[in-house]
Amino acid sequence: METPVQCPLLKSYCEIMSHPIVVKKKSESKFFFAVENTSRIPRKFSVAFYGDKKVGKTSILQRTTTGCYHKKYEPTISDIFEVEVQKQDCSKTHLTVYDTSGLHPFPAMMRVTLSHCDACVIVFSLTSEKTLLFAENKILEIQKIKGKTFPCILVGNQSDSSNREVIFEKALRLAVKYSCSYLEVSAELNKNINELFSSVLKKINNYERYFKNSNAFQKQRYKMMSDLTLL
Ligand SMILES: Nc1nc2c(ncn2[C@@H]2O[C@H](COP(=O)(O)OP(=O)(O)OP(=O)(O)O)[C@@H](O)[C@H]2O)c(=O)[nH]1
Ligand SMILES: [Mg+2]
């Protein structure tokens, strides 16, 4: 059974990242759903969204937090979304989501963000091969810093579009190569957006269970599970 999860509030990035440019957005409520087994999810956790410009990172996050979708493109500098997650046992967990810029990579900021991150979502557009290549390079960068077992989810957005360039099998192969989960979504149609966050929670839960503070056998088990968690 899935449990409704309460969200909202958005706050500025600058206090945390000492970054002078801020996009402030007003908070609104919305629900999404946690997966069944979230016992290992920490009380507070953070997820960072990466990907090329215009792939739909902000649109996915706006769908999650406000339920809205805007066709007009506004490049992100950096932004932060604060979400309250209610787990199945009704205890609450706080999720911070970092929305990053595809236009300006800010490598120094990426290191800071990754240092307090529990998982990464790497988004590409199913309408552009180039953005899949960008995603692959981003996964490599993340794994170089956080290690190969760090929870990463590869997401193909714009599955509603008729101008598809990336076939499912190609993206899936890439995800398998780097032990990521793979999911196709549409922010425009609100398709698979809740599933994406469920997948993030599942991935973090498995990582906490099989990898953090555990022995070699558990780590191997986690690696096998990672290879299998393809959605
Ligand atoms: N057809 C379609 N268009 C989408 C979808 N998601 C986003 N877009 C459009 O793609 C454009 C870019 O979306 P954003 O969410 O701003 O992209 P971004 O990845 O945050 O871009 P940066 O902030 O520059 O890194 C916008 O014009 C959106 O309306 C989708 O699911 N389907
Ligand atoms: Mg954006």
Layout of strands and helices, then pairs:
Layout: E1 3-6, E2 10-11, H1 14-17, E3 31-34, E4 44-51, H2 57-66, E5 78-86, E6 92-100, H3 107-115, E7 119-125, H4 129-146, E8 152-157, H5 168-177, E9 181-184, H6 193-210, H7 216-228
Parallel strand pairs: 4-6, 4-7, 7-8, 8-9
Antiparallel strand pairs: 1-3, 2-5, 5-6
The protein binds guanosine-5'-triphosphate and magnesium ion (MG).
Q: How would you sum up this structure, described in words?
A:
This protein has 231 residues and is of the alpha/beta class. It has helices at 14-17, 57-66, 107-115, 129-146, 168-177, 193-210, 216-228, and strands spanning 3-6, 10-11, 31-34, 44-51, 78-86, 92-100, 119-125, 152-157, 181-184. Strand 7 (119-125), helix 4 (129-146) and strand 8 form a beta-alpha-beta unit. The radius of gyration is 16 Å and the shape is globular. Mean pLDDT is 78; it is low at 1-33. The structure holds guanosine-5'-triphosphate and magnesium ion. Residues 51, 53-59, 71, 73, 75-76, 101-103, 157-158, 160-161, 186-188 line the site of guanosine-5'-triphosphate.
